[in-house]
Amino acid sequence: MLGNLIDPPTFVTQLRLRSNKFTSVRTNRYENTVNSKETSNLCVGQVLDTMLGLACMWILMSNGTAQWLANIGLAYGDKTAEGLKELLDWLMGAPAGLKLNSQLTHFLGKFFQYHIYLWTVYLSIIRPVLGSLLFYSSLSGVLGLTFQLALLQDILATMTVHIYCFYVYAARLYRLQIYALGSLWRLFRGKKWNVLRQRVDSAVYDVDQLFVGTLLFTVLLFILPTSALYYVVFTLLRILVLVIQGLLTRMRSILDTTPWWSVLRWLFNRQCLVDGAYLTTHTSSKSNNLVLYMHGTSPSLSTVLSSCREPTSGSPYTWATILKNLIHGHLIYPWIEMKQS
């Protein structure tokens, strides 16, 4: 948990990744032909990345584009805050005709509305400097478009920190109720969770414990739909932000891992790339000798990409694991809890 709390920004991670690539290539560039191809792919990829970054930097630094984008972002932030206020007012009433616990939904609504107020104050503080921040941050285009995308991810994470806070609060409350209901359900069946052996064992409870457990189970069960509704709403908002972040990450990954030198050679001089060979026969009319001709075959573009693309570490979390975490109230990215009780 602590390691995720102090994770560096995406921009720093991208800078470290690119630095490690250049260090690795510089160390092994004279070993074999494969490393020479990796060096060419990395250098051409860096040139292309820098050209795209400079083009984006020119667009942002010309004709007040940075300030225009800042105004759009701030207007969207204000609109999002107003939308969240309307959403909370809707949840504090009778959403979709559902009968919720009025005291709990009023408390949660006021709690989240106060955080929206803090968010609007935060927007008012950064409003005068956001345009200048985008203007000077566009200078990272010298390093490449991937660094600008990484910086955009950091800005997006900062602009949507209130949605993340809402999601964390709702998920923790929902998870606490699910955990308590599971413990009380085991109490009714004469079971308990053995922490030392990590299993469910039999247990004996007296009348007072059963009575208190019944009261707590009833209260938690009746207020669960209220907290579950807040959890579902803010989880959907969090997933929407993660989808946008995932698209930006995917764009950076494509720019980083595509072997651009090999792709250019395939486009303009495909004959220099050979992935196989085949033989043809030719019989001379003047003699009975059989002549064999060997011809090389050029690879397809998908073959070039698959053979030259650097292996990327896939996510260890499957869709089933993520769905299970969502149902149980575990926090998804970046705080996925691996230990399930």
From TrEMBL:
What domain of life does the UniProt record list for this protein's source?
A: Eukaryota
**Which keywords does UniProt give here?**
Membrane, Transmembrane, Transmembrane helix
Please name the GO terms of the biological process aspect recorded for this protein, alphabetically. Answer: GPI anchor biosynthetic process
The answer to keyword Protease applying to this record is: no
Instruction: Mention any Pfam family matching this sequence.
Output: Gpi1
Q: Which residues cross the membrane?
A: 116-139, 159-182, 229-248
State what protein this is by name: Phosphatidylinositol N-acetylglucosaminyltransferase subunit Q
Which GO cellular component does the record give, naming just one? endoplasmic reticulum
What InterPro entries does the record point to? PigQ/GPI1 (IPR007720)
Instruction: Give the signal peptide range.
Output: none
